[in-house]
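Sequence design from tokenized structure. All designs in this work follow the same two-part layout: the structure record, then the generated sequence. An example of the structure record is given first.
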């Protein structure tokens, strides 16, 4: 069954975190932005620590930053399951190995204009591939339909080589495009506004989670 990573923003209040604690979302997705790789900034070290202390969910951290290493020492002490950084920032396995040595699973994210085949050589070392279905940095954007083909291409490579790499999709996810993402091979869906813009978080999470994968 598909995993759900609920994306929260840096101004997320304690009530929102408490409500998410009562759902069956698998992860809290945290976008860390440096104002350089993307124009926006999000999640100071203090905010990360606050959310980590409040949540009962493991963290799925997406580093939209140039200086990946700067954040590793802080993240090491938190309830982090995944640290994902951008292929456009680091293109070798050194950072992947460093993160995995911390006992944390490592992912690579690709922007919409990056050829998904460019990361094939890294797949043996990765726990996760995060496909951006919008331009990173802003919430509420429209899902890009070119994402479906990317999922298919990377899924085929993973299956053919018997890798254990998960495919996560982030940006503009709702119960409509989620169906096709899963059909194409997605293992995890990252969603913010579809879930958090409604009072009943669990209902929205369930509407994504209840979709069954068809045979590829």
């Amino acid at each position: 069954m598909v995993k759900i990573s609920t994306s929260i923003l840096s101004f997320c209040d304690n009530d929102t975190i408490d409500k998410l604690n009562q759902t069956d979302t698998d992860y809290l997705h945290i976008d860390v932005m440096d104002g350089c790789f993307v124009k926006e900034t999000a999640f100071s070290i203090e905010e990360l620590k606050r959310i980590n202390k409040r949540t009962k969910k493991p963290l799925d951290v997406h580093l939209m930053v140039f200086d990946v290493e700067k954040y590793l020492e802080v993240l090491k002490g938190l309830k982090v399951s995944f640290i994902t950084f951008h292929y456009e920032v680091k293109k070798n396995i050194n950072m992947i190995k460093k993160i995995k040595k911390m006992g944390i699973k490592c992912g690579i994210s690709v922007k919409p204009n990056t050829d998904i085949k460019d990361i094939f050589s890294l797949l043996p070392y990765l726990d996760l591939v995060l496909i951006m279905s919008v331009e990173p940095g802003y919430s509420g954007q429209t899902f890009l339909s070119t994402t479906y083909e990317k999922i298919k291409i990377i899924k085929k490579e993973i299956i053919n080589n018997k890798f254990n790499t998960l495919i996560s999709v982030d940006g503009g996810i709702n119960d409509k495009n989620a169906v096709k993402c899963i059909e194409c091979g997605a293992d995890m869906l990252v969603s913010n506004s579809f879930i958090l813009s409604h009072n009943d978080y669990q209902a929205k999470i369930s509407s994504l989670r209840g979709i069954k994968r068809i045979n590829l």
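The helical segments are 14-21, 45-54, 69-76, 94-101, 147-160, 177-184, 193-196, 201-209. We note this feature because it recurs in several other targets discussed in the main text.
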